């Protein structure tokens, strides 16, 4: 039985984490691959890493990263001991098991196998007295849900223990374990309150101590009571408060993925990056001087490629997490540069400049020029699939769709980086001109995406149910992340404009053309459409598909490895719709005229409900999603109730006026 569970969990890990990374990080869309261009040109195909764009049947990242510990021993200065290697492997395996245990098996399967399907999502919002969703079938095995919770808690605690025990081991397997564990939400203790209150004091104290207590606070201590009273947010008391934001609440912060594990992994990758740079520099010196002196041992090209994509994955996650949490970057912009050593910098002959240069870098090997920096024009113009005469469209071949989605990934990362840069400039109180330049660059990224990939994504949403399973999974996650990044951009611009940190002419222009409200409307609506497409099926979108574990194939959004992002994406969109509902009958609100002329009340409510339903569907694997859905459900009910009461008062006022004006009316 234990072996069967482990096999199923490993399959879930593959269908979510490995499946997503087969699109997110490949040799073709990793910018650091250009650092190895000379080696790749000289190498034989057998010595290069096999491109995994379409190899979807293996655990590519797991197997390739596992090789690095022995391959990079010369840079470490020694091989790992047997004990260290065993501890690193245990940490990685434990993290994978904890990560995969987030997906519900029996409850999810029963939900999608039933004929009610989508209609049951609404029933999740209302709980019966015994805690079961109303409308659930009597024969649903409650004990299996309890067993799942027990397995989740056990595996999470085992993973945490194994990771902490391996914290001092300089291992790539440990780094990957930290990254996977960072995406693993802590399971909620759903035992009855009386049982928890009488738990031994030692276990209660232990459950309250986590490695990220200083950053996020204790998950367990916050989540010991799932009642609506404990999760109440003071900001929700004011139904008309434009700045209402449930994401600042400590309850949701505790449910979200803890950042300390990701930051530790990225910091260790950054340390290894410096070792790799030093190694490549020494190798270039030795080759250029034809030195026969023994130097540091050689690293295989495929292992260097593996490190590059792992480092790029770390940069991507660091960039995304920093923009969302507004925490400082672990790897600043200048340390993300693509390194192309210039022979002049090595004090060698000028005619040996055959090793290339960093785009935009002057010949004296100084800091790269902004026009060619990684976070400048390089990713903005990134098109490894080659130039196109027209923007890509669906339908097309699966291979072409995969290339388009892989090519779009760096542009999405660039948007999050621009958001983070704008936030940083604001914190540092930079000159208004610098903030305006950053806003201009971010809007250029936005325009580039819309003109290149925007229509393809719209095509995918419209053809959602007919897409190949992997294309469906890749586009939903990518497009959801992109539109959330655009909402973060709108928030960042609105913040600096509101605080008058920008230049007044540009600020007034953005206000007059309703730039912020347009950004919010277009991207919130796009997120709602993604949620609606994911909810459109009454059965799995690809039922009994052998390519996905049944716990993942109920909907494409269930393959998302970083659940927190899609939860926040749908929550942010829902917040916009609800805020606009609350301003619909408030002429004094600055957005009132735009909202009433560009939307309808019923459409806003429908879109808010769709986002809530999407979060509820994600709740099959995420307590944070369930909590967020319940918060927004309460908020929507309050706003709707307030509007109904106002309409009732208006109707009574009209009736009174009519009777007063017509005294003979009966």
Record keyword descriptors for this entry:
single chain; 666 residues; mainly alpha; 0% strand
Q: How far is the first residue's CA from the last residue's CA?
A: 77 Å
Number of domains: 3
Number of helices: 25
**Number of E-state strands:** 0
Calculate Rg over CA atoms. Answer: 27 Å
Q: Please tell me what the overall shape is.
A: globular
- Main β sheet profile: none
Task: State the share of residues found in helices, binned by percent.
Answer: 55-70%
In the predicted model, the low-confidence regions spanning at least 5 consecutive residues are 107-143, 191-242, 342-371, 538-542
Mean pLDDT over all positions: 78
Structural class by secondary-structure content = mainly alpha
SSE topology string: HHHHHHHHHHHHHHHHHHHHHHHHH
Description:
The chain has 666 residues and is mainly alpha-helical. It folds into 3 domains: 1-110 and 141-191 and 241-286 and 296-337, no CATH class; 373-549, no CATH class; 561-666. The chain is 61% helix and 0% strand. The chain is built from 25 helices and no strands. The chain has helices at 2-24, 37-42, 60-71, 73-76, 82-100, 106-113, 118-123, 142-165, 172-182, 193-197, 201-207, 219-222, 250-255, 259-288, 301-325, 374-380, 398-427, 432-462, 469-498, 504-512, 515-535, 563-583, 592-598, 601-618, 623-661. Helix 3 (60-71) crosses helix 15 and helix 19 (469-498) crosses helix 22. The longest helix has 39 residues, at 623-661. The protein is globular and about 75 Å long. Mean pLDDT is 78; it is low at 107-143, 191-242, 342-371 and 538-542.
């Amino acid at each position: 039985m234990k072996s069967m569970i482990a096999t199923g969990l490993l399959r879930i890990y593959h269908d979510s984490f490995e499946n997503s990374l087969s699109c997110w990080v490949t040799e073709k869309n990793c910018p650091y691959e250009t650092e190895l261009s000379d080696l790749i040109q000289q190498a034989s195909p057998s010595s290069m890493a096999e491109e995994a764009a379409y190899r979807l049947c293996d655990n590519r990242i797991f197997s390739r990263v596992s090789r690095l510990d022995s391959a990079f021993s010369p840079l470490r200065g020694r091989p790992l001991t047997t004990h260290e290697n065993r501890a690193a492997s245990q940490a990685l395996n434990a993290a994978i098991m904890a990560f995969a245990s987030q997906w519900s098996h029996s409850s999810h399967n029963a939900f999608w196998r039933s004929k009610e399907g989508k209609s049951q999502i609404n029933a999740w919002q209302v709980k019966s007295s015994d805690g079961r969703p109303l409308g659930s079938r009597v024969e649903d095995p409650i004990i299996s849900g309890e067993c799942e919770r027990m397995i989740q808690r056990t595996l999470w605690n085992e993973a945490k223990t194994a990771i902490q025990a391996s914290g001092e081991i300089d291992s790539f397997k440990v780094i990957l374990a930290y990254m996977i564990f960072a995406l693993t939400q802590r399971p909620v203790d759903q035992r009855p309150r009386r049982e928890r209150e009488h738990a031994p004091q030692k276990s209660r104290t232990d459950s309250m101590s986590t490695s990220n207590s200083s950053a996020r606070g204790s998950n367990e201590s916050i989540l010991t009571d799932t009642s609506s009273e404990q999760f109440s947010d003071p900001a929700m008391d004011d139904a008309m408060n434009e700045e209402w934001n449930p994401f600042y609440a400590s309850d949701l912060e505790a449910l979200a993925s803890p950042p300390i594990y990701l930051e530790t992994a990225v910091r260790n990758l950054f340390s290894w990056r410096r070792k790799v740079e030093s190694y490549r520099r020494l190798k270039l010196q030795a080759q250029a001087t034809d030195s026969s002196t023994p130097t540091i041992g050689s690293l295989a090209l495929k292992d260097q490629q593996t490190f590059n994509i792992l480092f790029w994955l770390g940069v991507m996650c660091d960039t995304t997490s920093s923009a969302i949490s507004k925490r400082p970057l672990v790897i600043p912009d200048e340390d993300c540069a693509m390194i192309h050593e210039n022979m002049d910098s090595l004090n060698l002959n000028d005619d040996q400049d055959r090793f290339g240069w960093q785009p935009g870098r002057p010949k004296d090997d100084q800091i790269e020029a902004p026009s060619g920096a990684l976070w400048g024009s390089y990713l903005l113009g990134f098109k490894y699939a080659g130039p196109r005469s027209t923007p890509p469209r669906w339908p097309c071949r699966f291979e072409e769709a995969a290339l388009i989605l892989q090519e779009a990934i760096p542009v999405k990362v660039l948007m999050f980086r621009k958001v983070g840069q704008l936030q940083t400039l604001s914190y540092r109180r930079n000159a208004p001109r610098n903030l305006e330049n950053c806003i201009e660059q971010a809007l250029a990224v936005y325009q580039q995406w819309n003109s290149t990939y925007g229509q393809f994504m719209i095509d995918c949403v419209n053809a959602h149910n007919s897409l190949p399973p992997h294309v469906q999974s890749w586009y939903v996650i990518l497009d959801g992340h992109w539109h959330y990044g655009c909402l973060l951009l709108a928030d960042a611009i609105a913040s600096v404009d509101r605080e008058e940190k920008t230049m007044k002419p540009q600020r007034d222009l953005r206000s007059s053309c309703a730039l912020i409200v347009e950004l919010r409307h277009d991207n919130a609506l796009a997120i709602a459409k993604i949620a609606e497409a994911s909810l459109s099926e009454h059965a799995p979108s690809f039922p009994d598909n052998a390519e996905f574990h049944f716990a993942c194939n109920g909907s494409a959004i269930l393959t998302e490895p970083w659940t927190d992002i899609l939860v926040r994406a749908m929550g942010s969109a829902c917040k916009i719709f609800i805020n606009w509902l609350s301003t619909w009958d408030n002429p004094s609100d600055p957005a009132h005229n735009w909202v009433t002329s560009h939307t309808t009340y019923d459409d806003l409510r429908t879109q808010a409900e769709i986002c809530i339903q999407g979060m509820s569907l994600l709740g099959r694997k995420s307590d944070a999603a369930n909590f967020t859905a319940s918060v927004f459900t309460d908020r929507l009910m309050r706003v709707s109730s307030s509007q109904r009461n106002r309409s009732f008062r208006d109707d009574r006022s009209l009736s009174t006026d009519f009777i007063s004006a017509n005294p003979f009316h009966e």
